Amino acid sequence: MAKRDRRFFKDNFPALRNSMYLNTGSEGLIPRETYKQINKLIKRNFKYGGSHPHFYDMVNFNFSKIPHYLKLLGVDPEKQIRVSSVSEGLNFCFNMLSNNNIKKILLLKDEFKTGILASYAFAEKNKAKLIWADDLDDYYKRLKTDKPDIAIMSHVDYRDGKDNNIERFYSECKKNNVFFIVDGAQAIGNLFIRFPQEIHADLYVWTTHKWLCSPRGLGFINVSQRIKDSIGPLGYHYFATEVFRPPEIKIIDSMDSMSVHAANFIGEIGFVSSMRFLDKKIGIDNILKINEDNKNYFYKVAEKNSIKVEVSDTNLLSIKVDEPEKVVEAMLRRKILIRSIPDTEYIRVSIHLYNNKKDIDVFFKNLNQILGEK
Amino acid sequence: MAKRDRRFFKDNFPALRNSMYLNTGSEGLIPRETYKQINKLIKRNFKYGGSHPHFYDMVNFNFSKIPHYLKLLGVDPEKQIRVSSVSEGLNFCFNMLSNNNIKKILLLKDEFKTGILASYAFAEKNKAKLIWADDLDDYYKRLKTDKPDIAIMSHVDYRDGKDNNIERFYSECKKNNVFFIVDGAQAIGNLFIRFPQEIHADLYVWTTHKWLCSPRGLGFINVSQRIKDSIGPLGYHYFATEVFRPPEIKIIDSMDSMSVHAANFIGEIGFVSSMRFLDKKIGIDNILKINEDNKNYFYKVAEKNSIKVEVSDTNLLSIKVDEPEKVVEAMLRRKILIRSIPDTEYIRVSIHLYNNKKDIDVFFKNLNQILGEK
C-alpha cells in the first residue's frame, strides 16, 4: 500500500478533490482511466460515426475482455444475462418466470424499492398475490407455510448494510420449489469481491456501478443451473431477445449482435476499464481489506465521539439522527457527500477504498458540529 | 439554407471529414454540440461523482427539456414509455400484453430481425404460435382469417425503405381486437419528422439514434389511448417498473426516480442536445425537404449511370449488386460508409441532411469503378 496513499487516490479519483465522497453505495466514483476510455469511445463515435469500423474496433476490443473480468469476479460468463440496470434485471427475472403460473410472491416488508416495484408490476399484470414477511425469520417460515411461487429479497439491506444470509433461504426455496430472486446491487465489492463457488439464488441480479467503480449502464443476472437448463445457452453478450433461441434462428454470437441490442457501450467500456484499474492498481483482493480497515476505524472514532453506528456486515454504515435530510444538506454544504434513508431517521455513510482515516475524522468532526448546532 | 453549406456540416459533424457517411439508417452522426454535452456530463460524473448535486443539476436540466422536444416531434409526453432501445421496447411491448392470453402472433415473412426475435422469445415462453404472412396483402387478409392476438410489423422496411402504410392494418386490427405493435425505428426523421395526429398502432416503438442525430440509449413506446387506459398514468420518465402503479406505492414522479432506473443519461442528454441542434440550426421542418432534394438527385445520377435504385418511400435507398459485402468493403477502403442487407443481394445507402450532391456524385463514381473492376 506504500504507493496507494491519499495522493494516489486523489490523482485517480478527482471527485475527491471537490468533495469527501462517502456515498459509494449510491454511486461509486469513476477512476481517471475509465473517464478517459469513455471519452475516447464518444470521441470515436463523433469523429468516425457510430457504425464505422474504427468505432467498433474499440467496442469489440473491450467486449472481448468482459469474460476475463467476469471470471476474475468469480462468475461464469456463460451464466450471465446482460442487463442495463438492476431495475431492468429484476423486471427481466419476473418476465423469465412468467410462464410458470406464478400466483404468490414473497417479499420482505419495507425492504427495497426496486424489487418491490418489479413485484408490484408483475403482480398487477398477472393477478398474483404479494405476501409480506415481517422479518427474516418470518420470511423463512413463510417459504414453507405460504407456498409462494417466487421469493425475492436483497442480498445486502441497502439501509443498514446487513447481510441477509441468503443461503438458508435458497436452500428452503429449492426444497419447496420456489424461484428465488436476489437483488445483489450492494453485495459485489462490499460484502465480497469474488462471488462464492455457489451463488445462492436462481436469479441473482448484480451491478457494476456502485462498488466496482464503473459508470452506470451494465449489470448482470446470474442464472442457476436449473434456470439455465430451461432457457438454453447463454453468453455474456446476449440480451433479452436472444435468451430464448429457437432452432429456426441463426445463433447470433458475433459482436455484430451487440450493435443491434446495446443501449450504448458506456457501461461495458467503463466496466472493463474500471476492473483493469482495480486489478492492476489496487489488486482486487486488497479491496475488502482496505474497506475493513476503514470500517474498523470508523467504529473506533464513533465510539470516541459517543455516536452509535448500527451494526453492519458491510461498509454501508448508518447512524440515527433527528431530521436526516437536514443533516445530509448541512454535510453537503461542508462538501461531504452522504445520504439519508427514505422514511427512516437514518443517515447512511458508505466508505470505499478511496477513503481514508482523515476522511473519517473530518466526517465525525463535522457531524458533531452539525448535531451540536441543532 | 445559405449558411448551411458543406462547411457548416463538416464543422458540425466532424465524422464527415473522415468518411463519406451514407449509412444514417444504421446510426446517425452526432453533432459537435451533442458530443460536447455528453463530454460535459461524463466530466461532471468524474469530477464530482455520480450522486453529487452538480451532476444532477445537469441531468435534471436536460430531462426538463424532454417534453418540449417530444411535443415538437408531435407526440404526447404523457403517452410515451421510455426505453433504452427498440429491442428493449419491443420486448417490453410483449411483456405488457402478456396477461391477455396471447395465442397467435402475426408477422411479415423475412421482415425485421428485432421484431422477429422479440416475437420468438415471447412465443417460446408463452407457447404462442407464430403466423407468417407472405406479403402485405396476405398480412392484411390474415388479420381477419387467422385471428391473431398480436400483429407486429415495422413502419418502414429497413431493407428497401418502403412505407408499409400501417393505417389500414391498424384499422383492421381494431375491428378484430388485435394488438398492433409497430417498430418505427426507421420512420422518425426519415418518413416524417412530426408524428401524425393519430399514430396508427397500439404500441409504436421509436428511437432517437438513427435519424435524429442522437447517440444510442433512448427510445420510446407511444401507447394508444386504449393501452393507456388499461395501464394507468404514464410519464416520459417512467420505466418498466413504474408503469403499473398500485395505490400502495407513492407515485414517483420526481427526477430522483431517474437515478434509480436510468441506465445512464447519455441517451437523454444526447437527445435534448441533438434536438436543439436540429431545431435551432437546421429547423426541423427543413429536414425532410433537404432529404428529398438529396434523394431526387440520387435517382437522377443513378439514371445517368444506368444503375437501378429500388423504389423507396424514404431515404433508405437500395441497389442490387453481386457480392454486396465486397462492395461495402471496397467502398470503405475509399472512405465511403454504406451497408449491405443480410441474406440479400443489396447494398443500402441512407442519405441524411448532412449529405450533399457532391457526396452522391462521389458515391456513384466509386460504385461504377468498383463494379467495373469485378
UniProtKB/TrEMBL annotation, chains A, B:
The keyword Nucleotide-binding is assigned to this record: no
Keywords: Pyridoxal phosphate
Keyword Magnesium tagged: no
InterPro entries hit by this protein: Aminotrans_V_dom, PyrdxlP-dep_Trfase, PyrdxlP-dep_Trfase_major, PyrdxlP-dep_Trfase_small
Domain called Aminotransferase class V: residue spans: 72-363
Parts forming coiled coils: none
Classification via SUPFAM superfamilies: PLP-dependent transferases
PANTHER family: CYSTEINE DESULFURASE (PTHR43586), CYSTEINE DESULFURASE 1, CHLOROPLASTIC (PTHR43586:SF8)
Name recorded for this polypeptide: Aminotransferase class V domain-containing protein
Source organism (scientific name): Muiribacterium halophilum
